[in-house]
């Protein structure tokens, strides 16, 4: 018996993402897909005799084009500033992809059915699972480690960044200045990859930086330390990470099984 052809097979043969195949199948005109790519995907579909799963198609077409966002409750002033930076960048990117973004406060603990997917940004694993327990929409973690293969998590590649910082500072010691995170697993990853980490909760934690080589990934800290003579800044949020997030949303909506759910960028 011939193995059933899947959307993943089509994507592999056409050398495109699963999300791109989904866009072509559903006639999406709001995505930037070249005519050449569209024709190639359709040719592969015809070649492989691929028949889309009807339930998956229904999931893909019956959408509200809305992403919900949960943030850390009771965050510090600096963390709130970083949250606003993230919201600004994410909402601008989602707008280009024809998605709306809605913020749900920690007081909203009921099931939220209007969103196609839900993002937990820099929250504890406990809070993440609390959200997941009352929702059926796909749930994704951004800038927090969940360590659960059922969920996509999109984080910075700390090992790569540590290597870049070492090159930038020419092997000299440096300190990672990072906003305090409620995600214990993220904190453990930071301390595993960086020999010296200084957590920042308020402005006074930045008083004694003279003579230090400093690495930052938070935009808020970069703004506060931009005049420091030895500063290396690697933005925690980038267009590449936002693209990966959207791709993961599409994978999750199509209920596409993947071996790798831990995306490091």
Automatic annotation (TrEMBL):
<keyword id="KW-0805">Transcription regulation</keyword>
<dbReference type="InterPro" id="IPR000843">
    <property type="entry name" value="HTH_LacI"/>
</dbReference>
<feature type="domain" description="HTH lacI-type">
    <location>
        <begin position="5"/>
        <end position="61"/>
    </location>
</feature>
<dbReference type="Pfam" id="PF00356">
    <property type="entry name" value="LacI"/>
</dbReference>
<dbReference type="InterPro" id="IPR010982">
    <property type="entry name" value="Lambda_DNA-bd_dom_sf"/>
</dbReference>
<dbReference type="GO" id="GO:0003700">
    <property type="term" value="F:DNA-binding transcription factor activity"/>
</dbReference>
<dbReference type="GO" id="GO:0000976">
    <property type="term" value="F:transcription cis-regulatory region binding"/>
</dbReference>
<keyword id="KW-0238">DNA-binding</keyword>
<protein>
    <submittedName>
        <fullName>Regulatory LacI family protein</fullName>
    </submittedName>
</protein>
<keyword id="KW-0804">Transcription</keyword>
């Amino acid at each position: 018996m011939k193995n059933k052809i899947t959307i993943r097979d089509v994507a592999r043969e056409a050398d495109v993402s699963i999300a791109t195949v989904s866009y072509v199948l559903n006639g999406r005109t709001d995505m930037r897909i070249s005519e050449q790519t569209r024709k190639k995907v359709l040719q592969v579909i015809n070649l492989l005799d691929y028949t889309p799963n009807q339930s998956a198609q229904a999931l893909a077409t019956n959408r509200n084009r809305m992403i919900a966002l949960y943030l850390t409750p009771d965050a510090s002033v600096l963390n709130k500033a970083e949250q606003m930076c993230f919201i600004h960048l994410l909402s601008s990117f989602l707008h280009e992809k024809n998605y709306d973004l809605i913020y749900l406060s920690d007081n909203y603990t009921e099931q939220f059915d209007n969103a196609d997917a839900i993002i937990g940004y820099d929250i504890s694993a406990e809070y993440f699972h609390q959200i997941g327990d009352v929702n059926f929409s796909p749930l994704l973690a951004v800038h927090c480690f969940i360590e659960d293969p059922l969920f996509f998590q999109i984080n910075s590649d700390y090992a790569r960044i540590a290597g870049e910082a070492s090159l930038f500072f020419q092997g000299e010691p440096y300190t990672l200045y990072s906003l305090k995170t409620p995600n214990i697993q993220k904190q453990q990853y930071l301390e595993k990859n960086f020999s010296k980490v200084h957590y920042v909760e308020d402005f006074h934690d930045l008083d004694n930086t003279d003579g230090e080589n400093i690495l930052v990934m938070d935009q808020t800290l970069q703004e506060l330390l931009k005049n420091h003579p030895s500063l290396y800044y690697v933005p925690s949020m980038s267009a590449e990470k936002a693209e990966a997030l959207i791709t993961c949303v599409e994978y999750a909506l199509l209920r596409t099984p993947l071996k790798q759910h831990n995306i490091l960028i």
